[in-house]
Design brief:
This protein has helices at residues 3-19, 33-46, 55-62, 88-99, 117-124, 129-172, and strands at 22-27, 48-52, 78-83, 104-110, 113-115. The protein has 173 residues and is of the alpha+beta class. It folds into two domains: 3-126, Alpha-Beta Plaits, CATH 3.30.70; 127-173. The model has no long low-confidence stretch (mean pLDDT 85).
Length: 173
């Protein structure tokens, strides 16, 4: 990798750090290519990204960003997961690390707040932004469906009464 490629990589990482909400730092030593592919697919499905980068270049990219407090985590075979959703990257990384001990969560950052391993795991237990939106829509829709049911009930009762009255008149004739 020549100097211009390194400069481009640092610039693209800096852009990624400026556009993301959370960064989770992991050790990935021993993961196979298939396992890495599976992890990347899971991240992509959740709206997150998983990237293996050179530690020195990543520390350079972290300078001047709100995530610069986690630069000391980038030692050894590290990779980072990041996303706009404050829960997605943490959730996928923690779930994957439970099933595969080769991926070890080291910590991360949510905005300017550095997170330890336990804090990342706690964050992973929260519902994602999409799940929260779905719950909110469900809570808003429930009263509307109840109101519609209540409004339709009297009309149905009136129709049944008229139908019964018509049948009674038909039998009398």
């Amino acid at each position: 990798m020549d100097r211009s490629e390194k400069e481009q990589l640092v610039a693209s990482l800096k852009d990624a750090f400026n556009e993301t909400t959370i960064v989770v730092v992991t050790h990935y030593s021993g993961l196979t290519v298939a396992e890495m592919g599976d992890l990347r697919d899971r991240m992509r499905e959740a709206g997150a990204k998983f990237k293996v980068t050179k530690n020195r270049l990543t520390r350079l990219a972290l300078e001047g960003t709100r995530f610069q407090g986690i630069s000391d985590l980038f030692t050894g075979p590290t990779a980072m997961a990041y996303s706009q959703d404050p829960v997605a990257a943490a959730k996928v990384a923690v779930e994957f690390s439970k099933k595969n001990e080769k991926l070890v969560v080291l910590g991360g950052a949510l905005g300017e707040k550095a997170l330890g391993v336990d804090e990342v795991k706690a964050l992973a237990t929260l519902p994602s932004l999409d799940e929260l939106r779905a719950r909110l829509v469900g809570m808003l829709n429930t009263p509307a469906t109840r109101i519609a049911g209540v409004l339709q009930a009297p009309a149905g009762q009136v129709a049944r009464v008229i139908s019964a009255y018509g049948q009674k008149q038909g039998e009398a004739a």
